[in-house]
Design brief:
The protein is α+β, with helices and mostly antiparallel strands. It folds into 2 domains: about 160 residues, Butyryl-CoA Dehydrogenase, subunit A, domain 3 (Up-down Bundle); about 120 residues, Nuclear Transport Factor 2, Chain: A. The protein is about 50% helix and about 10% strand. It is built from 13 helices and 7 strands. A 7-stranded mixed sheet has the order 2-1-6-5-4-3-7. Strand 4 and strand 5 form a beta hairpin. Helix 1 packs antiparallel against helix 2, helix 1 packs across helix 3 and helix 9 runs antiparallel to helix 10. The two termini are about 40 Å apart. The C terminus is likely disordered.
Length: about 325
């Protein structure tokens, strides 16, 4: 295929490829890197015999995403501050970037991205490709070097971890969910008046030392102090989203698609917030089960559009080894 023709076809497929990559990685910047790398590999490959070019390009893109996901699992944890944007307009703060908003409108929620971060690379790929993009398990299995049955099991395990169990008290859960959503919205905007309405007078806020500067106390008491303090963290609140923490509504903070902190929020019988525990220690985070507050996941496509050809050439023929199923 002529290089110019390939470039034109790639540009036509770029939006689709970015959407797939963003669902898999959860970061606009990292998704762009994966798409650009896929283009470079496609440009140097032998395209003869490729019948479904978009499917072939998507396969290469998914492989690049899988490499990034595996690298995440291998890398040591980095400080929370290293994931914050250098500039207020930086696209690395994905939750506020126009690119992220456009992709999120495609059917994936910020809550889903946070929960997906807890899955193994194989589970995440199987779930996203099948449940979000409606890719048949035959194709998913081929991409993962697994049987269709094994791919189906990976997606099923992922689905169970994402959706969790039904709440024991649905009405209370819905009310608490509303309160947590209102608290997050007020935190993002520094809305002191609303925060004071939501917080109990004797509310206590605790935070892991690794998440705050040295001059910020790890404990704060009283509605006024806690509300005023939220102004220091409005940027972090922009990457926050309501999720269920061990079945209870709370907030997950995930800059660039990586879960870095959660807020456990204790709501009393008076429907006021009595305690906020901000957890960033990775040992404590690992003990918390994150699930979606809503059970449905919207599909971006209604038919199998992805895997449709095998990459060829020295760079793109590399097939990844079987990822962990857990």
């Amino acid at each position: 295929m002529d290089a110019n023709v390939l470039a034109e076809r790639f540009e036509t497929a770029r939006e689709h490829l970015r959407s797939v990559a963003y669902h898999l990685i959860g970061s606009v910047a990292d998704a762009e890197d994966a798409v650009q790398t896929a283009f470079l590999k496609a440009s140097g490959a032998d395209t003869r015999g490729i019948q479904n070019l978009e499917g072939w390009l998507t396969t290469i893109t998914v492989h690049e995403c899988m490499d990034q996901l595996r690298a995440r699992k291998r890398r040591a944890e980095v400080p929370f501050s290293d994931l914050e944007p250098r500039h207020a307009s930086s696209a690395s703060w994905d939750s506020d970037s126009p690119e992220a908003d456009a992709l999120l409108a495609d059917g994936v929620s910020r809550a889903l991205l946070i929960v997906l971060d807890r899955l193994s690379p194989a589970q995440r790929v199987a779930f996203v490709l099948h449940d979000v993009f409606a890719v048949p398990f035959d194709d998913v299995g081929q991409l993962l070097n697994r049987s269709p049955t094994a791919a189906k099991k990976l997606a099923s395990r992922a689905r169970g971890r994402i959706r969790g169990r039904a709440p024991l008290h649905p009405r209370q859960s819905r009310e608490h969910l509303r309160i947590v959503e209102a608290f997050l919205a007020a935190s993002r905007g520094g809305d002191i008046t609303t925060l004071l309405e939501l917080l109990a007078p004797d509310v206590v806020r605790t935070v892991d030392p690794s998440l705050v500067p040295r001059h910020v106390a790890t404990q704060a008491r009283g509605a006024r102090q806690v509300a005023e303090e939220t102004r220091l963290f409005t940027k972090r609140a922009r990457s926050g989203v309501v999720v269920l923490l061990d079945g209870t509504p709370g907030i997950g903070v995930a800059p660039r698609g990586r879960i870095r902190a959660v807020l456990r929020i204790d709501i009393g019988e008076d429907n006021l917030i009595h305690a906020i525990d901000i957890i960033g220690d990775h040992h404590r985070l690992d003990q918390i089960t994150l699930t979606l507050p809503h059970s449905s996941v919207t599909r971006v496509t209604t038919g199998p559009r992805l895997v449709g050809g095998r990459p060829s050439g020295p760079d793109t023929s590399r097939r990844p080894g079987p990822p962990s199923a857990h």
